[in-house]
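Progress against Task 2.4 (sequence-to-structure conversion) is shown through the following example record, which the project officer requested during the mid-term review.
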Amino acid sequence: EKEKEKISNNDDKGNEESKSETEKSTDPSKEIGNQFSVLLSRLCDCGSKEKIDSWAVEFCYHNSKVNRKKLVNTLFGVPRTALDLLQYYARLVATLSVYFKDIAEQLIYFLEEEMNFLQQKKKDVTHLETKVKNVRFLSELVKFKVCAASIIFTLLRTCLDDFTPHNIELACHILEVCGRFLYRSPTTSARCSNMLDIFIKLKQLKINDPRLEMMAESAIYSCKPPKRVLKDSQRPPLFNYIRHLLYTKLDANSVDAGKNILIFFDF
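Structure tokens generated for the chain above:
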């Protein structure tokens, strides 16, 4: 009887082990899900072009409709203090949107909806950083031609119509990130130039805060830098005479004469 009990116990253990092995082998979706979660956790460390391009390639091996939604939520939920990552996230969206159109469409929709909601809360200071993150993200997407320029022009127009301190900061961020791109693009140059002129006039009339004034000037110069004026350098007469000897008079017959003249100069 004891031997039978031992045999039955061993059989039970073997059955439990075989069940656990079959559960592990028959549930590969969990392992794939865990791998993608690890991949998403590495996204915040992609602070260069090479890293974000490599991440985009890895994502293609985990592509699915569910994972694309998770990626959009991760991109949309980027911390409002991590503004340096936005340019690389926009590059990622531009790379993947060539093959997966829904990523860019969903992300832009989320950013627009949140901006429209936050714009209604004009007096709430706590949402300013989120607004800045959203306008900078949309501006980066405009530079990659993923987001339509009309969206950012609408936001800029809203800021100019209600020229409050919060909207002044948002307008400065828009001009700083994508103003130069819009000003230099043939299709948007005229519209951007008109809005920039309005912004300059409003700056002169309504901005009294030195901090905002510095931000506005920096945004204007980043969008439309002043032209460099090259000064005509006047050479001294002796220098011009030496150039005349070397470049005009010097030939095979005048080498000795030129050498005799040049040795008297104090070089």
